[in-house]
Amino acid sequence: MQLTNLFRSIGLPQLSVRAGFGTSAATWVLLQQAFVRALVAAKFLLLGRILGPAAIGSIGVALLAIAIAESLSDTGLSQAIVQGRNDPSRAELGAVLTTLATRGLCISLCLLLLAPVMASAFHLGGALMLLQLAAVPPLMRGLASPAYFVTQRERRFAQVAGVEISVALVDCCSSIGMAVGGIGAYSALIGAIAGETLKTTLTWTAMTPRPQVRLSWSGIGHYLHFSRWIWASSVVSLFLNQFDKVIVARLLGPSELGAYQMSSRLAQLLLADAAIAMSQYLFPTFSANHRLDPAKAALLVKRYLALATVGLAAIVLLLRAFAGPFLSLLLGRSWLVAVPLFRIFVVNMAIGALIAVLVAYLRAVGDAKAATHGSLLQVIMLAVMVPIATRHYGVVGLAWSMTAGLGAAAALMLYRLVKRS
């Protein structure tokens, strides 16, 4: 009751904070976030304990290959469907399906062809099959029904939560079971394949409207003006989110990458992922409010940002103070070398969480290019700072350079938000 009164006192709408279970209630997003993040955390923490830094580094390279391929080919169609003023027709959904399925097939073929090159470049030795296995998840994602995007647009969060929790549970259980059974680094990708297969199946069997199944790319040109900025943002974000991992993996090998990536991933799970998950609620909610009353949407995002800033600051201070005991308890004393990096990453991920809220609003009001401009500013900051910081401070300097770039991007997006309102 006290929490409800607090939210009411600062003026947040009843729909966004009520503890109800209507199909569009924020409760479902919060439950999804809690269960999915807990399962993802359990997967990577247990895999870290079972497999060790070297195997985690090899898994990281495989996931890096998927991230690169998907970011370079991001169509932005899912966000365009959610943001669009009119509901998509079945024919338009059919064209979206054709586009995404073709994209998934192309990504898979590229990953298969480039697997030997990546195995050599990142010192993976006999892990060629691991990189080849990474070609399967993008293909399964491409075959999913675009009805999933309509479900998000219509704010059917209960259905989305049911699908995402089921997928995360299958992924987690499959991965851990395979690791315990001695499958090694392959266990993480096998679990991911099992989860994506289930998600694709559920989008076709449990979600409507079903798209027309026919080979067609026409009829979705009106989405391209918006989606091109999503693609540009994805390409820039690829550089921002993955280039540090490429440097570490290329120069130091999988063991060092494992320690670097685990500390980064743990900070992300604790901070940024919560905001990213919440953006599944915020993006369609901001979009719906903006269509009805732009001033209301602008006021709403400012209140969410204020709450997020206070909460994130408290969490960051706590995690930085107890970083050593925290990592030792979760992963074991062999991971204590990652403590200095973890203390930096919690700051980075807190800024990233605020950026997730800003991006959800800017895209909801049709200003998708603002997020791209922020990312480009971050690229410029990194281009200037990384060579100097890395030379004098090594990996720690690289991590602090990321902090400066994220701060600059957040400041620019906040300026665009204030200017619009």
TrEMBL record:
TM stretches of this protein: 50-72, 93-115, 121-140, 161-194, 304-323, 335-362, 374-393, 399-418
Protein family: Belongs to the polysaccharide synthase family.
Cellular location(s): Cell membrane
Pfam families: Polysacc_synt_3 (PF13440)
Name of the protein this chain belongs to: PST family polysaccharide export protein
Membrane topology: Multi-pass membrane protein
GO cellular component: plasma membrane
Superkingdom of source: Bacteria
Keywords per UniProt: Cell membrane, Membrane, Transmembrane, Transmembrane helix
Lineage, highest ranks first: Bacteria, Pseudomonadati, Pseudomonadota, Betaproteobacteria, Burkholderiales
